[in-house]
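Researcher: We plan to redesign the surface later, but first we want a full-length starting point. Tokens attached.
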């Protein structure tokens, strides 16, 4: 005889595909509050990728998928750039695009990161630094978002776009993730004459 744990299908993975400084840290905290074990690939990428090779995309993707395999969900870089590989490797994944206006994003990005890009940011944006390359950053920001929206068109059960700066929050997140990622509702007096 199988136990309930053996018959219950695994919960879908959750992949936050917003770019850095779009609310990914806040959303990861919300997902942790719902009980998800959240992973992040950036430290492993910094340690393990051979950044001198001409195209590290395959290595970046392999590590990103490995981090997700060991977690309930992931957020932050490089997931906004490897989401198609995640979708192929983990069918049924719930994808959340955190977004904000380009103007507020680039201001936050400039304030948070040093001007010289680390190897991962060089790979994502294709330039050595932000200064003097604002047009490339804007093209990457708008291009990635457009690509995600097109890719997930007609897949509302798999894709949610959230703008935390405009007030999106628990209501949108819980509706999108339910029922797979919510704990059971507590029934305190089940089986007694009065259910309270």
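Model: Full-length starting sequence:
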């Amino acid at each position: 005889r199988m136990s309930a744990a053996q018959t219950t299908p695994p919960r879908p993975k959750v992949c936050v595909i917003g770019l850095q400084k779009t609310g990914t840290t806040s959303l990861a905290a919300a997902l942790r509050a719902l009980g998800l074990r959240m992973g992040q690939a950036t430290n492993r990428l910094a340690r393990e990728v051979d950044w001198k090779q001409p195209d590290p995309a395959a290595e970046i993707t392999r590590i990103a998928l490995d981090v997700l395999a060991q977690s309930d969900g992931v957020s932050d870089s490089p997931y906004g750039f490897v989401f198609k590989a995640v979708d192929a490797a983990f069918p049924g994944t719930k994808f959340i695009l955190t977004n904000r206006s380009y103007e507020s994003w680039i201001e936050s990005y400039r304030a948070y990161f040093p001007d010289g890009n680390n190897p991962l940011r060089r790979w994502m944006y294709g330039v050595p630094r932000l200064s003097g390359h604002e047009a490339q950053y804007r093209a990457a920001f708008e291009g990635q978002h457009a690509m995600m929206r097109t890719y997930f068109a007609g897949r509302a059960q798999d894709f949610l776009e959230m703008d935390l700066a405009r007030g999106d929050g628990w209501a949108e997140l819980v509706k999108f993730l339910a029922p797979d990622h919510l704990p059971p509702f507590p029934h305190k007096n089940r089986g007694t004459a009065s259910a309270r």
